[in-house]
């Protein structure tokens, strides 16, 4: 319910950015605003989550944590990943990783 309300508000906010023709804009229904909000949420959610993951992976000092390092640097692992490594969904435990 909370997500639907946020999606509806976001969709209504997007409507203010739509171009108008001849200064007149036809009002839309609440269902249309909700559908626009849901579409916007489905489109932008993966982009936001990917950016959060990038920030969490790069906001760290070099060689402080396995598989992570600061932006614009090349970080190599000198050892195989530990058994509790959760940096990726399914890492190979017989592979040395490098991150750039």
The neighbouring-strand order within the major sheet is: 1-2
Shape: elongated
What summary fits the major beta sheet? 2 strands, antiparallel
Beta-strand portion reads under 5%
- pLDDT below 50 for ≥5 consecutive residues: which ranges? none
Rounded Rg: 22 Å
Into which percent range does the helicity of residues fall?
40-55%
CA(first)-CA(last) distance: 40 Å
**On the 0-100 scale, what is the average pLDDT?**
75
The DSSP helix count reads: 2
Total beta strands: 2
Q: What is the N-to-C succession of helices and strands? A: HHEE
Structural class designation: mainly alpha
Assembly type of the shown chains?
Answer: single chain
Number of domains: 2
Describe what this molecule looks like in 3D.
It is built from two helices and two strands, in the order ααββ. The chain is mainly alpha-helical and 100 residues long. It has two domains: 1-14 and 28-59; 62-100, no CATH class. Strands 1-2 form a two-stranded antiparallel ribbon. α1 packs across α2 (30-58). The longest helix has 29 residues, at 30-58. The chain starts with a helix and ends with a strand. The mean pLDDT is 75.
């Amino acid at each position: 319910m909370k997500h639907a309300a946020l999606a509806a508000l976001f969709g209504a906010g997007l409507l203010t950015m739509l171009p108008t023709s001849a200064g007149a804009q036809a009002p839309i229904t609440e269902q249309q605003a909700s559908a626009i909000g849901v579409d916007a949420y489905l489109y932008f959610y993966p982009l936001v989550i990917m950016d959060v993951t990038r920030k969490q992976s790069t906001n760290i000092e070099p060689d402080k944590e396995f598989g992570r390092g600061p932006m614009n640097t090349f970080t190599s692992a000198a050892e195989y990943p530990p058994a509790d490594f959760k940096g990726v969904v399914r890492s190979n435990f017989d592979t040395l990783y490098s991150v750039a």
